[in-house]
Write a structure and sequence with these properties.
single chain, 8 helices
């Protein structure tokens, strides 16, 4: 499905940028920058394909790792990390959101291709979407974003659920997938803007 490949490219570019910005923030050297961008961008897809029982696509298609390389090079050339008038936090959130939605969709589509049930679609979409981010956050010794705030992983689950329903009614096509992409992106941005969070439980300490 061409739409799946296109969405993968969007996700890779977006997560490569977020990995690049995080590596700059933590003063990594050039090797660290490329490793962080690569693992953030390709990690989710590798997990997805491994679970689906196939050779990770980034291992056989040179365009995908080259996309990471080109993205990092252009980010450096454009000096995204040095622009005074560019809110790097907003750039990070936007790139991370695009990556999240893109990989949620690609994970769900791969699951549907291999005939997975609803649970399988949810798990594959979720792990594809957050896998790279978890690797990124773990490498910089942070608790992964998906476990703490911003309605993050929940968006991936909602997107996967919508795709599963569309497929069940046999109305899953390129147009409906693009609509889901837009819906997921708006949902993620709204969740960030209005600080939507899932409830947390805290322990009560006794004197």
């Amino acid at each position: 499905m061409e739409i799946l490949y296109f969405i993968d490219i969007i996700g890779i570019i977006s997560f490569a940028i977020s990995g690049f910005l995080i590596s700059i923030k933590h003063n990594l050297d050039m090797l660290g920058i490329f490793l962080m961008a690569s693992l953030t961008a390709l990690g989710g897809g590798i997990i997805r394909d491994t679970i689906a029982g196939r050779i990770p696509y980034s291992f056989v298609d040179s365009i995908l790792p080259m996309t990471v390389l080109v993205t990092v090079v252009f980010s450096i050339i454009l000096k995204l990390h040095q622009r005074e008038n560019l809110d790097r936090k907003e750039l990070f959130i936007m790139s991370d959101s695009l990556g999240l939605i893109s990989f949620s969709i690609s994970g769900a589509l791969v699951a549907l291709e291999v005939g997975a049930n609803y649970f399988g679609v949810i798990i594959l979409a979720f792990t594809t979407a957050v896998g790279g981010g978890i690797i990124r956050d773990t490498l910089i010794n942070h608790v992964p974003l998906v476990l703490t705030k911003d309605f993050y992983g929940t968006v991936a689950i909602i997107v996967a659920t919508v795709l599963y329903i569309l497929n069940s009614f046999d109305i899953l096509n390129n147009i409906s997938i693009l609509c889901v992409f837009g819906f997921g992106l708006v949902l993620r941005i709204l969740a960030y803007k209005y600080k939507w969070k899932l409830p947390k439980f805290t322990t009560i300490e006794k004197d």
